[in-house]
Design goal:
The complex is a heterodimer of chains A (361) and B (330).
Chain A: H1 11-20, H2 23-40, H3 42-45, E1 66-68, E2 74-87, E3 92-114, E4 118-127, H4 145-181, H5 183-198, H6 201-211, H7 218-248, H8 252-259, H9 264-272, H10 274-300, H11 312-317, H12 322-327, H13 333-355
Antiparallel strand pairs in A: 1-2, 2-3, 3-4
Chain B: E1 3-16, E2 21-36, E3 41-45, H1 52-59, E4 67-72, H2 83-90, E5 93-96, H3 110-120, H4 127-140, H5 157-169, E6 175-179, H6 187-204, E7 207-212, H7 215-221, E8 224-229, E9 232-238, H8 239-244, H9 249-257, E10 307-310, E11 313-315, H10 318-321, H11 326-329
Parallel strand pairs in B: 3-7, 3-8, 5-6, 6-7
Antiparallel strand pairs in B: 1-2, 1-4, 8-9, 9-11, 10-11
The chains are: A alpha+beta (361), B alpha/beta (330).
Chain lengths: 361, 330
C-alpha cells in the first residue's frame, strides 16, 4: 500500500509548481515582496519625518554615506558630510569636509505609530543630530524623498490590492449572474456595463470625485480613491467573466450537476465560478498596475491624496515643471518606483498566465 | 412502462436583429414518441445533428422549452414540472455524457464528485459513510477505492467515463441516459465500458436510453433500436428485426454504410447522396425524400406517420403504408 500513497496534486497545485519554476515571475514576486515589506515598515525605514518640511534643505541633492574620508582614512562607522547651500538662487549645495556625521543603526528618531497601533521611535538608520542624509535628495519643501517614497508606497501599493478586491468581487458577481441566468438579466447588466465603459476613464474618475465632498481627511480620500478605481475597472472584467460563464455553463460537468439536482447557487459557486479563478488571478495581477497608475493620475490631477501626505502620484506632480526636473532630477524617483512596481507586477502576471494556461493541464 | 415519451418537440428559437425578434426555429426534435420498459435498453441512433442528444437532455430537463409529454412510471408530465418539483425525479433518471474530459469538474477530487449527489439528496448520515458509499460505487465500476482522492486529470478517458458512470449510479437511478457514452473512447475501451454497462444492467435491473451514432455499438447493447432522422423517428423495432430486415430506406442506407469486418464479402452499396436538410426549414412531406432512392409522388407532399407495420416494428415510410407504394405493387 505504501507505494500507492503518492500525493495527488490538484490542477491549482500543478500550476503553482510551474510558477515557482519560472525565473522571470519569481524575480517579479521577489521585487514585490521587498516593496511590500518596505511599505509595511515604512516608518521604520524612514530617515526623516515624511510630512515635516525643512526649508533649509530645499532641493537638497542626494548624498551618500562614506567609509573612507577625503584623506583615505577608514571609518568604522559610516558617515555623511555636512552640506552647505552655496548658491541660494540656484540651490546648489557643497559638502563641508570638516563636518562628519556618523550614521546610527536602530537608533532613536522621530516618533511614529507602527500600523497606527504601536508608539515607536526606533528607525533602521538615523544620522547624528545636525547632519543631513538624503539618499534620494529632498523636494522643494526640503522633505526627504526616500522617506516620502516609503510613506507614499503605503498608499500606492495598497490601492491596487484593495481596489482589485472590489473589482474582482463586483466583476465576478455581475458577470456570473449575467452569464448564468442570461435573458433580460444579462441584457440589463451588460447594457449598464457598456454605459460605464463608454465614458472616458479620466472623466469618469473626475465625475465620481466631484460627487463627494471637496474636503475630506486623508483616510477618507484614500478610501474614496480605492472605491472609485474599483468601480471603474469592474465593468471590463465582468464582461470577460460573463463570456467565460456562458461557455462554462454548457460544460458537461455543469449539466451533470444539474442532473443530480444541484441548486443554482451550488452550480454557480462550485462548478462554474471556480473555472474562472485562474483567469481572475492572472487578470487581477495584470490589473494592479492600472490601479497604481489610477491613483497616480488622481493625485497628479490634485483630486487624490493631498499635501502634506505622500503618494507616488502626488510626488510626481512636482516633476511636472521641466525646469525643476532638469535641475533636480531626483524628483523623478517616484516615477522610477512606479516603473519598477508596474514591471514587477507584469512579470508576475505573465508568469501566472503561463503557469495557469489551461492547455498545460 | 418505465418511461413514456409522447410527441416530444424541442424547437430552438433563432433570434435576429436589434430587438432579438424570433425569426424562425431550429426543429431539433419534432414529434418524437417512444417507450422504455424496466430493464430494457432502447438504442437511439442517427446521424450527427439529427436531435438524439436533444431528446436525451429534454428527458432530464437540462434544456428549457421542450414540449410534449414525458411520463416516468406514474409521474405527472415531467415537462410541466417546475425545476423544484423535478428534483425528486432526478434520483431516478441520470445521465452519462460523451466527453470524459469535460464531464468531470477538473477542480474536484473523485470523492467530492461522487459525494456531491449524496449531499444534495441526503444519502448517508456522515461524510465517512458517504465516502464508504462512494468507494463502493468505484469498486462497482471497476476502479479502486484509493482513487477517491485523485483528480480527474490523473485518469485516462476510459477511467473517467467509469467515474461518470459511478456518479450516475450514486443516486441509484432506474433509468440512465447514455449520451454517446462510448463515442469518445478507443474501440477496446468502448467494449469494456459497454460490457460494464451491461453488467450493471443485469445486476441492478437498469434501463438505458443509449444514444449513439455507431450502429454496431447500438446493436451490441440494445434490446430495441430507434432510428432518428432530422428530429423525427423513422423506424423503431427490436434489434434483430431492425438489423436483419430494415424497412425504411434511411435505415437500409445506414446499415449499408457500416463496414463489414471481412474483406471477402462484397455487397451492393447504395450510399446516401446529398446532405441532411436544414432543421430550420425541413422539406415538405417526408423529410428524407430529397435523399431517398425509392422516393415516389406522395413522399414530396404528405408526411408519413410512424405506423406499426409488423408486431413491434414501427416505420414512418410511405413505401410501407401508402396504397400507391411500389413496394406493395411488387
Amino acid at each position: 500500500m505504501a507505494g500507492e500513497a503518492r500525493k495527488s496534486l490538484s490542477p491549482f497545485q500543478l500550476s503553482l509548481r510551474r510558477l515557482l519554476a519560472n525565473p522571470t515571475a519569481m524575480t517579479g514576486l521577489l521585487i514585490l515582496l521587498v516593496l511590500y515589506f518596505l511599505a509595511l515598515f515604512s516608518s521604520f525605514f524612514s530617515l526623516a519625518d515624511p510630512v515635516k518640511s525643512n526649508l533649509d534643505s530645499s532641493y537638497h541633492p542626494p548624498n551618500w554615506f562614506h567609509f573612507f574620508d577625503e584623506e583615505g582614512q577608514f571609518h568604522w562607522r559610516p558617515f555623511v558630510y555636512g552640506m552647505e547651500c552655496v548658491d541660494l538662487d540656484y540651490l546648489k549645495y557643497e559638502p563641508v569636509l570638516e563636518k562628519k556625521y556618523p550614521l546610527r543603526f536602530f537608533a532613536e528618531g522621530y516618533p511614529y505609530r507602527l500600523w497606527g497601533l504601536f508608539e515607536c521611535t526606533r528607525h533602521f538608520i538615523q544620522v547624528e543630530t545636525g547632519g543631513e542624509f538624503h539618499p534620494l535628495g529632498c523636494d522643494s519643501l526640503g522633505r526627504d524623498v526616500w522617506s516620502r517614497l516609503l510613506s507614499g508606497s503605503r498608499v500606492s501599493l495598497s490601492v491596487g490590492l484593495l481596489g482589485i478586491l472590489i473589482t474582482l468581487t463586483l466583476g465576478t458577481l455581475m458577470g456570473g449572474i449575467a452569464g448564468y441566468f442570461g435573458g433580460w438579466t444579462d441584457v440589463l447588466l451588460m447594457r449598464y456595463v457598456e454605459l460605464i465603459l463608454s465614458i472616458p476613464g479620466l472623466y469618469l474618475i473626475l465625475a465620481l470625485r466631484a460627487v463627494f465632498p471637496q474636503h475630506l481627511n486623508s483616510v477618507q480620500v484614500y478610501l474614496l480613491i480605492v472605491v472609485i478605481l474599483g468601480f471603474i475597472f469592474w465593468a471590463g472584467l465582468s464582461r470577460v467573466i460573463r463570456g467565460m460563464v456562458l461557455s462554462l455553463r454548457e460544460r458537461e460537468h455543469v449539466l451533470a450537476a444539474r442532473a443530480i439536482g444541484a441548486s443554482h447557487l451550488r452550480i454557480l459557486v462550485r462548478h462554474i465560478l471556480p473555472g474562472t479563478f485562474t483567469y481572475l488571478i492572472v487578470a487581477g495581477t495584470i490589473m494592479v498596475p492600472s490601479y497604481i497608475l489610477g491613483e497616480v493620475s488622481l493625485s497628479f490631477l490634485g483630486v487624490g491624496i493631498e499635501e502634506p501626505q505622500a503618494s507616488w502620484g502626488l510626488m510626481l506632480k512636482e516633476a511636472q515643471d521641466v525646469q525643476v526636473l532638469d535641475d533636480f532630477r531626483w524628483i523623478l524617483s517616484s516615477g522610477v518606483a512606479i516603473f519598477i512596481t508596474v514591471f514587477a507586477f507584469n512579470f508576475l502576471g505573465d508568469g501566472l498566465r503561463d503557469a495557469f494556461d489551461p492547455r498545460k493541464d | 412502462m418505465l418511461l413514456q415519451v409522447s410527441n416530444l418537440r424541442m424547437h430552438f428559437p433563432i433570434r435576429s436583429g436589434v430587438f432579438s425578434r424570433v425569426s424562425g426555429y431550429v426543429r431539433a426534435v419534432d414529434g418524437v414518441s417512444f417507450e422504455i420498459a424496466p430493464g430494457e435498453t432502447l438504442g437511439l441512433a442517427g446521424e450527427s445533428g439529427c436531435g438524439k442528444t436533444t431528446v436525451g437532455r429534454s428527458i432530464l430537463r437540462l434544456l428549457d422549452g421542450a414540449e410534449g409529454e414525458i411520463i416516468f412510471r406514474d409521474s405527472p408530465n415531467l415537462l410541466s414540472l417546475s425545476q423544484n418539483q423535478m428534483r425528486r425525479y432526478r434520483r431516478d433518471i441520470q445521465i452519462i455524457f460523451q466527453d470524459p474530459f469535460s464531464s468531470l469538474n477538473p477542480r474536484l477530487t473523485i470523492a467530492s464528485t461522487l459525494i456531491e449527489p449524496m449531499t444534495i439528496f441526503k444519502i448517508g448520515q456522515s461524510r465517512r459513510e458517504r465516502r464508504e458509499l462512494a468507494a463502493e460505487r468505484l469498486r462497482e465500476v471497476g476502479l479502486r477505492p484509493d482513487h477517491l482522492d485523485r483528480y480527474p486529470h490523473e485518469f485516462s478517458g476510459g477511467e473517467r467515463q467509469r467515474i461518470g458512470i459511478a456518479r450516475a449510479l450514486t443516486l441509484e437511478p432506474s433509468l440512465i441516459v447514455c449520451d454517446e457514452a462510448v463515442s469518445a473512447l478507443d474501440v477496446s475501451v468502448q467494449a469494456q465500458v459497454i460490457n460494464l454497462l451491461m453488467e450493471l444492467q443485469a445486476a441492478r435491473g437498469l434501463s438505458y436510453l443509449f444514444i449513439s451514432h455507431a450502429l454496431s455499438v447500438v446493436e451490441h447493447i440494445s434490446h430495441r433500436v430507434a432510428i432518428m432522422y432530422l428530429g423525427k423517428l423513422v423506424e423503431v423495432a427490436g434489434k434483430e428485426e431492425l438489423y436483419q430486415s430494415p424497412l425504411h430506406p434511411y435505415t437500409e442506407a445506414l446499415l449499408a454504410a457500416a463496414p463489414i469486418p471481412d474483406p471477402a464479402i462484397r455487397r451492393e452499396r447504395h450510399l446516401l447522396e446529398g446532405d441532411v436538410p436544414s432543421p430550420i426549414n425541413p422539406p415538405p412531406g417526408c423529410s428524407f425524400h430529397p435523399r431517398c432512392p425509392s422516393c415516389f409522388s406522395p413522399c414530396r407532399s404528405i408526411e408519413p406517420q410512424l405506423t406499426e407495420v409488423r408486431p413491434g416494428h414501427w416505420v414512418a415510410c410511405h413505401l410501407e403504408t401508402h396504397p400507391d407504394s411500389p413496394r406493395k405493387a411488387r
